[in-house]
Give the backbone structure.
Amino acid sequence: MVRDVEKAGLVQRFAGAVVGLESCEIATCIRSVEELARCVAELVDRVADVAVQDEDVRFLVFERIGRFGSLAVPAVERVYREAQDADLRLMSASVLLDMGSSVGVPDLMEALGERGQPLYTGALSLSAAGIEAAAGPIERALLATDPTDTATIDCLTLALCNLGGRVSPAVIEHVSAVEPDWRRNAFLKGLVADERDAASTEGDGS
């Protein structure tokens, strides 16, 4: 019942602010803009709560919550701080990094020492954000991955390609053991291309 009253109040405030935007009075218009911002912030909090409470839609909600822009950051940071399970904490850390907040970077870096989905989330999120400190741990994770585990090799080589720069000869040698040869060549193509780009940049004095 309380929730319904709060929801009705939010709807009324939002509607009133929208009407106020059309006012010819500058003060009224500005107050309406500020009220709309407060309403949207409350709305984002509700959206974030949906992600916490319903695992079936969590990924889809987090995938879209960034459309609220910077107003979504405080809500997702709250979810991150209050998360009771590791998956929610890591997912919210990834979303925050994508929105420009580095508050969850330590958890994403720690995930590079794990296997499976946590490793994938950490590697792809950190590399997409250009966190160069992740390059070494990603290389070590790749070297610890059996060449037959092509799903993990695929993720980690993509992460290294995202980061650019040179990779160690040990990584090239390790990936060279992947079979069949068409898959191995696809992995090596990106890694070797990044090495050539890095060497070219150094040669230009950039």
